[in-house]
Amino acid sequence: MDPFFLEALVNGVLLGGVFALPVLGLNLVFGVVDVIWLCYAELVMVGMYAVWFLYTQAGWPLAAAFAACLPIVAALGVLLHVLVVRPLLHAPPINQVLATGGVLFVLQGAATLVFSTDFRSLGVEMPPMEVGEVFISGTKLAAFLAALAGAAALWAFLKFTYVGTAIRAIARDREIMPLMGVDPRRIYLITSAVGGTLAGFAACLLVVQLDVHPFVGLSFGPITFMICVMGGLGNMLGGFLAAFLMGLIVSVGGFWWNTEMSYVVAFVFFIVVIFLRPRGLFAR
Amino acid sequence: MSAAVEDARGMGGTAAATASAAATLELSGIRASYGDFQALFGVDLHVAPGEAVGVVGPNGAGKTTLLRVISGLLRPTAGTLRYGGQDLTAVPAHALPSLGIAHVPENRRLFPHLTVEENLKVGAYSRSARARFAERRDYVFTLFPRLRERRHQLAGTLSGGEQQMCAIGRALMSGPRILLLDEPSAGLAPIVVQQVFALVRRIREEGLTVLIVEQNVAQVLRVVDRAYVLETGRVAAEGSSAALAADPAIRRSYLGMH
């Protein structure tokens, strides 16, 4: 096989891993709270700035900057829930979308004010690895492995803890949760914190691959939403699989045509999928 | 008999001991509405520790509403609701399982995409219940051996009778002293209905206090000590099961006899 095509396949899988985290976060919050965080990619953007600032400006070790990024974005998720989502829990969905969409612009504007529109880079790069005839970026591979570890940790949390089991339960039947001794308000808060943590995790993996600027969310936000819808909104496993599918399409599309064209291919694929399976590829 | 079963029996005994020390549930003058629609018009009802009490009546009489008020899912607009002297109207619904009140909702409402054991785990969510999860799960499995066989199966794939066992088991996981059962026989085949009432009898023998809402009047009167007849949100009659079963009006309206 053409080693460049093989390389495109490998890169597609690696890219899928990075898409997977924000997809899981969005799906989790939507499945439990029933509100779409339209500003999800901007939470990731704030996390990227946090890492960039702590590492390059404050002189923290990279690991410490990563470690701080998770609770920072988790706290942001909690704030978003308490200040914006909770007051609108029983409002029409359009109001919820407008409100979280408004937060998107607020975060972009705030980032522009504080950091200007300059592109900021960490300047961290791991050496590439050569496997057979294929070159694999060390940074992308590390990010991919970390993303898998993050997804596995989320799975274990949802599968084995009391809170995680309640989170899976509440996504199906919120009304009777108090009969189980579960306070739904608390579950919403915890879910928002977990959703924020996943955004923070994604920020750590993206900041080593992309330069940060106030509008960096646009480079992965729309595709994140597309993947969520393709996998079936709220369907964690569907979203996870769709993330890899989309990673492959973008990467192989870029190999056959060019990078710009690859996103066109991805959108066309998305439109066809939604036309054929309106409830998502993996809807049961 | 295995030691595990003996232990579980022993635990049933402890449950009985707590139940006898347990509190009386008292409702007086309870009114409740859904928006403009008033469902309860001043209901008085009490359940003493160790008793099994039935609430019967036609569809739409307010039976389910009554249980929803007791378990805090719906706040009464007037009246008092006490359990062992404590005013429950000020207690949030999710705190009630820790107080010893468990509610098996209408239509069972299992989490169909979770396994039997995970359903039980959600039932043991409260802090005090988590510490005793394994012990109570084994107790539930002793009561309902079918659930042990199917513990890793998704609850949505259980038969109707097994789902009712799982719903009752889930409620038992919080270690309740009083169990509220809403139409446990609804939607089940006649043979399964018999099994469900056998389950209720079994739970009574374990020493639990039971408040059961049913449309199946003939069956429920055989299981409970006393019953209330609820009609359009008011208590139309009350008395011992024997007295109600002998009442000509009840026989005519609910037992299909003349």
Topology record:
The complex is a heterodimer of chains A (284) and B (258).
Chain A: H1 3-33, H2 40-57, H3 62-85, H4 93-115, E1 129-131, E2 134-136, H5 138-160, H6 162-170, H7 184-207, H8 221-231, H9 236-256, H10 259-276
Antiparallel strand pairs in A: 1-2
Helix pairs in contact in A: 1-5, 1-7, 1-8, 1-9, 2-3, 2-4, 2-7, 3-7, 5-6, 5-7, 8-9, 8-10, 9-10
Chain B: H1 3-20, E1 25-34, E2 37-47, E3 52-56, H2 63-70, E4 78-83, E5 86-87, H3 96-99, E6 101-104, H4 116-123, H5 127-130, H6 133-143, H7 145-149, H8 160-172, E7 178-182, H9 190-205, E8 209-214, H10 217-223, E9 226-231, E10 234-240, H11 241-246, H12 248-254
Parallel strand pairs in B: 3-8, 3-9, 6-7, 7-8
Antiparallel strand pairs in B: 1-2, 1-4, 4-5, 9-10
Helix pairs in contact in B: 1-6, 4-8, 8-9
What key attributes describe this structure?
heterodimer; A: mainly alpha; ABC transporter involved in vitamin B12 uptake, BtuC; two-stranded antiparallel sheet; B: 258 residues; alpha/beta; Rossmann fold; six-stranded mixed β-sheet; four-stranded antiparallel β-sheet; 10 strands; 41% helix; 24% strand; globular
